[in-house]
Design goal:
By secondary structure, the protein is of the alpha/beta class. It has two domains: about 220 residues, P-loop containing nucleotide triphosphate hydrolases (Rossmann fold, 3-Layer(aba) Sandwich), CATH 3.40.50.300; about 240 residues, Rossmann fold (3-Layer(aba) Sandwich), CATH 3.40.50.300. Helix content is about 50%, strand content about 10%. The strands form two sheets. A five-stranded parallel β-sheet has the order 2-3-1-4-5, sandwiched between helices. A five-stranded parallel β-sheet has the order 7-8-6-9-10, sandwiched between helices. β2, α3 and β3 form a beta-alpha-beta unit. About 35% of the residues are buried. The model has no long low-confidence stretch (mean pLDDT about 95).
Length: about 500
């Protein structure tokens, strides 16, 4: 791509300015339509140091209402200091429906620099390229308009610009050691940029612009943006078709096949609880020291005992090192983004634990059955969830998923107790009773979920919870065993 780039020819200045003025007026007219059509737009500006990325963004946003866009410059954090997954800065920055975001460098710059600095292995680099393609495809299939631009200058032009910046007291701060290193290693960077763009061009194509001719670059970027927005407004939001990648799956029983008669005596429960909580407290310290992130996911029937189970897990943990996220219906700002966004924003830092009381699996259960998303959306979600979880485990997270299981008679007894106990009445709602009437449909959805998303890297565990004491001990045993294994692997 860069190898075949041909520099643009000089153009008449007045004609260029007139064309830019016309394109800006078109963009002004489009911004209100973007709001009406709820079309989110992400513009990624990559390129060489000193190529003019910031200046290009300034020109692109000059006539846009500032209430409807954001400019984000994700820092390139050294791998030794990173506390979140690779895609975290970008996944958490995606815009709401009807708004635009401009990224001043992004996933390409981060991946290439860390590869050339030898901060990540070749295998990890390959994983990141795959994650980028998955991320871009998920956004595209969810209706996002993505424009990727690379601003190109040759080595001589870069040297001249870096020198000019360095010679001014007001701009010398803009030239970093990394910029100078990139200039010295121009050929290696060019080859790596080229390879990255080739490998990430299929889902969303790259557009290479001539950074040496600044006005031409502004005109070409505006033309691309106006054209892509116009096309999307004309056709409407793109909704991707479901497809299925072959993840290695673990066979799961159907819920009807699970034996719920298992139980513990009070004495067995007390002894096991004390021992397991003590060990979990010890492991929490080791997790923090070794910077191992832990994500515990709880799903299950209403009144199955998720809250009590979570309390027994959380009790021995240092409160400064964990968070519990109760997930309810999406807020308006969450509904207006790709469905995984609200979970990306709640991920733990390395060395911390987060517990989700309900999760991203709402997409293939309640949202599927209540019609809160389209059939294409929830069918596509199985694969998107598997990809998301693979990215988390590639990052090094311990990811455990629990389905807290009870039968209908037990649920009815617990609903009735809640209804008749004043201090527990807040736990029972009309929605709980409505959901109970749909038990058969939910059971089909849960069986589909277990079948399609029980992967080898992120398996499901069915926790028999007719006896809450048994359920708590079983979950604690699984957690302790998984954390011990993770701590032994990390030196």
């Amino acid at each position: 791509m860069l190898q075949d780039f041909e520099r643009s020819k000089p153009e008449e200045k007045d004609a260029l300015n007139n064309e830019i003025k016309h394109l800006r007026s078109q963009l002004i007219g489009q911004q209100q339509l973007l709001r009406e059509k709820k079309l989110p737009v992400l513009v990624l500006i990559e390129g060489w140091s000193a190529a003019g990325k910031g200046s290009l963004i300034k020109e692109l946003i000059s006539e846009i209402d500032p209430r409807f866009y954001n400019v984000v410059s994700p820092a390139i954090i050294p791998e030794s200091e990173s506390r979140y997954p690779f895609l975290y800065p970008y996944a958490t920055a995606i815009p709401e429906n009807g708004k635009l975001i401009f990224l001043d460098s992004g996933w390409m710059e981060s991946a290439v620099r860390k590869k050339l600095k030898l901060e990540i292995s070749k295998e990890e680099y390959r994983r990141r390229v795959r994650a980028v393609n998955e991320f871009e495809r998920q956004l595209r299939d969810g209706g996002y308009l993505i424009l990727k631009i690379f601003l190109h200058i040759d080595q001589d032009e870069q040297q001249e610009r870096l020198r000019a910046l360095s010679e001014s007291a007001d701009t010398e701060w803009r030239v970093t050691g990394d910029d100078l290193w990139q200039h010295r290693e121009y050929k290696h960077f060019k080859k790596s940029y080229d390879e990255f763009m080739e490998e990430t061009n299929d889902v969303i194509p790259w557009h290479i612009l001539d950074g040496k001719r600044k006005k031409v670059a502004v005109r070409d970027a505006l033309k691309l943006l106006v054209h892509r927005i116009g096309k999307a407004l004309e056709k409407g939001r793109y909704i991707g078709e479901p497809f299925e990648e072959k993840f290695p799956l673990v066979k799961m029983p159907k819920l009807s096949e699970v034996d719920l008669s298992v139980s513990l005596t009070d004495e067995e429960y007390r002894k096991s609880l004390k021992k397991l909580q003590k060990r979990l407290s010890e492991l929490h310290n080791i997790l923090y020291r070794k910077k191992i992130p832990v994500i515990l996911c709880y799903e299950g029937w209403d009144a199955a005992g998720k809250g009590g189970n979570i309390r027994r897990v959380a009790y021995p943990l240092d409160p400064r090192g964990f968070d519990v996220h109760p997930i309810a219906s999406p807020e308006p700002h969450e509904l207006n983004r790709q469905f995984l966004w609200r979970f990306w924003t709640r991920l733990p830092r390395s060395g911390h634990i987060c517990i989700f009381d309900r999760t991203w699996y709402g997409r293939v259960m309640v949202e599927r059955l209540e019609g809160f998303c389209t059939e294409k959306d929830w069918q596509r979600a199985y694969n998107e969830i598997n990809e998301f979880e693979r990215q988390l485990t590639d990052w090094g997270a311990v990811l455990l998923k629990f389905w807290i299981h009870i039968d209908q008679d037990t649920q009815l007894a617990r609903f009735t107790e809640r209804q008749n106990t004043p201090e527990k009445q807040w736990k029972i709602t009309d929605e709980d009773w409505r959901n109970r009437e749909k038990w058969p449909q939910y059971e089909v959805a849960v069986n589909d979920m277990l079948k399609k998303t029980c992967t080898e890297n992120a398996p499901w565990y069915i926790i028999e919870s007719n006896d809450k004491k048994y359920a708590r001990i079983k979950a604690l045993k699984i957690i302790v065993k998984a954390l011990e294994k993770a701590c032994e692997k990390r030196f």
